[in-house]
Amino acid sequence: MSDTVAPRPITLKPIVECSRAQQEAIRDIRNQPAIRAAMYSDHVIGEAEHFAWLERLRGDERQLIFAVLDDTETPLGIVSVNAWDRRHKRSDWAFYLDAAARGGLGAALEFFFLDFVFDTLGIEKLNCEVLETNPAVVALHRNFGFAEEGFRRANVEKDGRRIGVHFLGLTREEWHAGRAGVAERFADKLARFSIALAPAA
User: Fold this and answer.
1) What is the pTM of this model?
2) How far is Cα 78 from Cα 97, in angstroms, rounded to an integer?
3) At 54, which CATH number?
C-alpha cells in the first residue's frame, strides 16, 4: 500500500466572480494582524470599503486579482497582478495567505503564478515591493530568482516609525533559465498542491 499523499487541490478564481460569502471571508483575511502588518495600508478594512474596492476592480484592466480557494472553495488568500502595463509588458504582483494556510502553499503558489504571468499573460518583467519587516518574503522571492533592484530607506510609516522597502524584479528570461532549479529546490512543497485556474465563468 502506497503512503503517497495526493496533492491538495487549490483553485485560483477571479475575486469579482466569487460569492458574497467568499468575498466576506477574504475581507477577514485582509484584516488579520499579520497581513495588515505587511501592507502599506494597515487599517482595519470595513465592509463598505471592501466592497467598493471589489466594484472598482470590475472595470480595472490593470489589475487581475484571484482568490486562492481550497477544495471546499474556502478562501485562503489572494494573489494579484497589479499595475499591468501591456505596452511595456510589465506588472507588479503580490500575494498573501491566511496564517493557518501556509505550510508550503506560498512557494507552490509563487511557482504556479510565475508560469502563469510569463507564459499565459505574456508579461516580460515582474516587479514587487516588500517591507523590510517581512524578510521571509524577501528571501522567498530571491529563491525564485528575483533580484533586488533597490532599497528605499524609511519609505513608509507604520506604528509611528519609518520602514524601508525592498524593490525586487524578475524577467521572463530569468525565470525560464532558473525554473528547473527552483522546481528541484522546492520539489517537496510543490508536490503538496495541485494549483489550477477556475474555469471561465
Assistant:
1) 0.92
2) 7
3) 3.40.630.30
